[in-house]
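Worked Example 4.2. Read the sequence first, then its structure tokens.
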Amino acid sequence: MLTKYLIYPLFGLLLSASYAMAEMKIGFVNVPQVMAESPQVEQAKKEMEREFSARMNRLEAARNEIQRMQEKLNRDSAVMSESERNKLQNELLKTIRDAKRNEDDLREDQNIRQNELLSNINKQIQEAINELAKEGEYDLVLISGVGYRSDAIDITEKLQEKLKQKF
């Protein structure tokens, strides 16, 4: 019985000492910084702009048309016949509804596409982190959300270089 109370604590001390003696190599990656500076994100932004620029231009033209129609209605409503005024008001409402629907569709399509691109970029970042960890023989790589970290373990720049190489 006495050996049970002496051996288990001794065994625990020996085990914890061996863990303490083993040196861990830890790295830290600032993912928001990587996302802000990676060429993949810049390419995705340009791709999004190129993909949706025509629709955005059409939407801007519709907004200008709505503004033109509202100005005409405000300016000329006193001299228009009631049927002309009603026709212009109905046309204005239809244009507003169409523009709103097109804007909602555009925003939804942009969100879907942005999520696809970000998912792909996140996958590339994770693969690069895994490669960097294996190459640098890191035992643990932490990403953002860390209360404190020393600059000595920050491998963000190494990760950014690896992503640039893959680009």
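Now turn to a second chain, presented in exactly the same format:
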Amino acid sequence: MTFYCFENARTPGQVAEMRRLDAAGICLFCPDGLARHPPERILLRTRHWTALHNDFPYPGTRMHLLLVPRQHATDLTGLPGAAQQDFWHALEAVVSDQELTYYGLGVRNGDCRYTGASIAHVHAHLLVGEPGPGGPGPVRMRFSARPGGPAHPPDPA
């Protein structure tokens, strides 16, 4: 079983890390995978969720955080009710702690070959774009894919 949809990766560095973890049989977002993140990248841990900085942030973001359930699931609805409820507590805590006055929230559920996700472990993206007219433009998050189709277009440099 693979935990990754390589065709949805956005950068060569992301693909390399996914291949390394896949060869070791490690899901990046299960407890063993989360343990590899340096402690300073972790913002919050609740009973069911971990909030951390994304190692591969989307272009145009001032902040790109991930909320990851500790239990492996590919869909939020596949998590126990307590974990679903704890999501909202974790989100509220992160928004308060980071003093966010605006953000976007995106979650892909189900088979990552079709959702555009690169990891087959449900997680929420908390995205904060750069404000102002001189910024890099809107932050874009992909929500669909075709199995075996082309990867994301390269990030603009």
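Notes for the reader: The helical segments are 12-23, 31-34, 81-97, 112-115. Strands lie at 42-45, 49-53, 61-69, 104-107, 124-129.
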